[in-house]
């Protein structure tokens, strides 16, 4: 039996702090996985789910996008602790019925935390709340779709926004973007805008593809692996196995991060005897505790030192043949990196010249290097130049198209990369739009739409009438929380296609619909054509199938492709040129369309049924070629840049708890960092704590400054912690209110969640965030 939903919410006064851990996973991870599963879903549903996750013929974990091997056998338990939590949350036997909504007015739900809301269970029935009403009430599916059509057709396409979460499967994403473009808008913001958009903005112009260029098998051949601006122990724990194996083989694993995360130092493999006995395998061989925002300076220093070493012994550190044959811009890059201001570099990075030189020596000797990164690099004003410096280093040593080498942006959501591949993008290519128009006979709009930050601005200016969210929790995922929530409540209609309650449901538009959908773990068998399956793309461009096998908790749930099809039919009419009904009935029809629209998906229906799926083309990896506008890999030159805090201020970054997946909270135990039963905390170096005149565990209000404006978030507790000096860390999304809407990565418009300039003042007694523009 599963346990009922918790009735108590987070009490920040119960906060407990212990020493940070020095190893990840192990027996504790197994126990927590099982306990969470049994509590949410019960024994039977938990065990049936765990046996099928990431297995052939099973379902793709709704957690991270780390791949499975396509050359070796799958492990019996091909998931991690946080994957198990994600599965338990989705396979939950707890239900949120119409009676639950009747018992909980919006005024009460708005006071609840995301942890409490998400713990209540799976939504069972379509629900609606209209202007002036205090409660959501049930609505039939047909009336729900009629309501959507009424609002969409009463406004213009540019005032409609279609947001997408990364968990949306390929087939759904393809239909969803087709709906938006059939309607006449490219307003297709997605969670990529808020996380890895900077990666695509850097990779596309330099190597001709916005994705990573390595396979999982490359980790078996790399001599040096960099893990930069990420926390694999919590956010993609299965990566630890690949890193530990590489270290065991003799590779050097270099972790670069402001926080000394447990997964950098040790991995207790729960699938090995030694791991279960408590012995941890070493992961990183080297750890550089860099200041937030100092990575650009570090990579520029590496480039300088590699060139200096090659000057002494030509050809020893630089792949001149590769550079001459397939790249452009090397001479300008070489000139820019000829000199280095070491004092500025040490100040920007917080590292010594000796530390930087030692790690550069590893690069100089390495014949196969992989550089991995995540949101620590993508959410700063100078994110795109930083990532271009990574590409410069890889080009400099020919680290493309050979075993054990390449660029590896590590994605979070399990299909965020697939959504973009399917056309979820506010700035579509002409090639995609022409292919859609030819396949379906529509006239796709050419004007670019809103990304997530532009959607925030549009809400603020009352330029959004209809907001549809395919999964996700937009209100908490973006910056400038108060302004965004106020704007959402002024929209005429908000529509949330969801599995469980979240904050966006309770800061709703004048009219709001919640449409309950099947999850990854659920059977999708209510079709004349028989049970259906979907597909996803992992971080390394592998397309494979996913098919749930659990009985849904309610007969009223619809699959996402069915919801999109019925929504499209209601809005565009039964006689619309696109046969939406055929796609909803048989997902092979969707895949046939995709095969004719998207390069790399030819013969989709046959290839997706192969045991390991198939791998999409990747020119830098496959043939050492680059599909840029000049047909070559491009070296770039960026000026020196770093984040600087004025006196009395620190640079604040956001982070996830170990009991968290984006805006979903599985619990309140950040076990590896030693934080339990509280989330409104600021991790701060003990010297900074002392110099600023505060004490450990002191309650403060946090004030961020940006371009002469201030944002304030109240009632945070300072925790003495070994983060980089001059820097601090707080949990996402509690700190989102501190991020000004214009604090973004310049080229990608990604919110600057790793770049806040903050100071602390004595707590005023106010409970929540305030702002002053």
Q: Tell me the helix content.
A: 25-40%
The end-to-end span amounts to 51 Å
Provide a count of the helices. 31
User: What class, by secondary structure content?
Assistant: alpha/beta
Total beta strands: 33
> Which CATH architecture of the largest domain is right?
3-Layer(aba) Sandwich
Query: What's the CATH class of the largest domain, please?
Result: Alpha Beta
Question: What is the molecular shape?
Answer: globular
The CATH topology of the largest domain is what? Answer: Rossmann fold
Integer average pLDDT: 95
Report the β-strand fraction as a percent range. Answer: 15-25%
Largest sheet: 6 strands, mixed
Strand order of the largest sheet: 6-5-18-17-16-7
Low-confidence stretches: none
How many individual domains?
4
Explained architecture:
With 773 residues, the protein is of the alpha/beta class. It folds into four domains: 12-90, no CATH class; 95-193 and 415-517 and 557-574, Rossmann fold, CATH 3.40.50; 197-410, 3-Layer(aba) Sandwich (Dimethylsulfoxide Reductase, domain 2); 650-772, Barwin-like endoglucanases (Beta Barrel), CATH 2.40.40.20. Helix content is 35%, strand content 17%. The chain contains 31 helices and 33 strands. A six-stranded mixed sheet has the order 6-5-18-17-16-7. Strands 23-31-28-30-29-32 form a six-stranded mixed barrel. Helix 6 crosses helix 26. The longest helix is centred in the N-terminal third of the chain and has 24 residues, at 27-50. The mean pLDDT is 95.
């Amino acid at each position: 039996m599963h346990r009922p939903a918790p009735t108590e919410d987070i009490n920040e006064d119960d906060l407990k702090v212990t020493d940070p851990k020095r190893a990840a996973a192990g027996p504790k991870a197994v126990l927590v996985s099982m306990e969470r599963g049994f509590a949410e879903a019960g024994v039977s549903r938990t065990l049936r789910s765990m046996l099928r996750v990431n297995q052939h013929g099973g379902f793709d974990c709704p957690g991270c996008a780390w791949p499975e091997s396509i050359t070796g056998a799958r492990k019996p338990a091909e998931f991690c602790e946080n994957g198990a939590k994600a599965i338990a949350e989705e396979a939950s036997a707890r239900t949120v019925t119409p009676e639950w909504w009747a018992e909980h007015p919006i005024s009460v739900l708005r006071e609840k935390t995301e942890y409490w809301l998400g713990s209540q269970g799976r939504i069972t029935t379509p629900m609606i709340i209209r202007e002036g009403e205090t409660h959501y009430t049930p609505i039939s599916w047909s009336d729900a779709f009629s309501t959507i059509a009424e609002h969409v057709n009463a406004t213009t396409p540019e005032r409609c926004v279609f947001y997408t979460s990364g968990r949306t499967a390929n087939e759904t994403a393809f239909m969803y973007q087709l709906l938006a473009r059939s309607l006449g808008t490219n307003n297709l913001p997605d969670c990529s805008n808020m996380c890895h958009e900077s990666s695509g903005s850097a990779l596309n112009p330099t190597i001709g593809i916005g994705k990573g260029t390595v396979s999982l098998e490359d980790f078996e051949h790399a001599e040096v692996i960099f893990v930069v601006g990420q926390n694999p122990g919590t956010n993609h724990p299965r990566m630890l196995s690949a890193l530990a194996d590489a270290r065991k083989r003799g590779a050097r694993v270099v972790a670069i991060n402001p926080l000394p995360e447990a997964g950098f130092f040790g991995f207790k493999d729960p699938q090995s005897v030694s791991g279960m006995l408590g012995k941890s395998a070493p992961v990183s061989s080297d750890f550089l505790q860099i200041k937030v925002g100092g990575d650009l300076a570090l990579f520029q220093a590496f480039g300088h030192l590699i060139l200096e070493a090659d000057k002494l012994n030509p050809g020893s550190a630089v792949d001149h043949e590769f550079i001459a044959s397939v790249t452009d811009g090397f001479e300008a890059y070489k000139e820019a990196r000829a000199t280095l201001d070491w004092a500025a570099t040490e100040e920007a990075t917080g590292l010594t010249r000796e530390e930087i030189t030692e790690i550069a020596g590893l690069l100089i000797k390495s014949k196969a290097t992989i550089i991995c990164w995540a949101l620590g690099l993508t959410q700063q004003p100078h994110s795109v130049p930083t990532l271009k410096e990574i590409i410069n280093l890889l080009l400099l040593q020919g680290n493309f198209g050979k075993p054990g080498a390449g660029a590896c942006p590590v994605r979070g959501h399990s299909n965020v990369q697939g959504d973009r591949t399917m056309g979820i993008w506010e700035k579509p290519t002409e090639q995609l739009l022409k292919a859609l128009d030819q396949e379906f006979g529509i006239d796709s709009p050419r004007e670019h739409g809103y990304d997530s930050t532009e959607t925030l601005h549009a809400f603020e200016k009352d330029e959004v009438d209809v907001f549809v969210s395919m999964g996700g929790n937009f209100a908490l995922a973006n910056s400038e929380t108060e302004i965004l929530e106020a704007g959402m409540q002024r929209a005429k209609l908000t529509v949330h296609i969801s599995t469980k309650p979240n904050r966006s449901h309770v800061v709703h538009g004048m009219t709001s619909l919640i449409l309950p959908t099947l999850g990854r773990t659920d059977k999708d068998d209510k079709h004349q054509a028989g049970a259906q399956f979907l597909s996803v793309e992992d971080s390394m461009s592998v397309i494979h199938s996913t098919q749930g096998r659990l009985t849904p908790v309610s007969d009223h749930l619809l699959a996402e492709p069915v919801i999109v099809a019925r929504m499209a039919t209601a809005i565009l009419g039964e006689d619309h040129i696109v046969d939406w009904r055929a796609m909803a009935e048989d997902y092979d029809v969707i895949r046939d369309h995709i095969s004719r629209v998207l390069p790399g998906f030819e013969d989709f229906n046959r290839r997706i049924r192969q045991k390991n799926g198939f791998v999409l083309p990747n020119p830098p990896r496959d043939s050492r070629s680059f599909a840029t506008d000049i047909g070559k890999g491009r070296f770039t030159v960026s000026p020196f840049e770093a984040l600087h805090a004025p006196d009395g201020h620190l640079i604040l970054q956001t982070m996830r708890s170990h009991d968290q997946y984006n805006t979903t909270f599985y619990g309140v135990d950040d076990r590896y960092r030693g934080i339990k039963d509280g989330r409104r905390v600021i991790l701060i170096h003990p010297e900074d704590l002392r110099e600023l005149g505060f004490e450990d565990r002191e309650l403060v209000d946090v004030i961020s400054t940006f371009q002469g404006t201030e944002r304030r978030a109240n009632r945070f507790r300072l925790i003495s912690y070994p983060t980089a000096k001059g820097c601090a860390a707080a949990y996402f999304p509690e700190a989102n209110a501190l991020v000004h809407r214009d604090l973004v990565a310049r080229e990608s418009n990604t919110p600057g969640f790793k770049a806040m300039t903050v100071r602390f003042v004595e707590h005023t007694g106010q409970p929540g965030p305030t702002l002053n523009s």
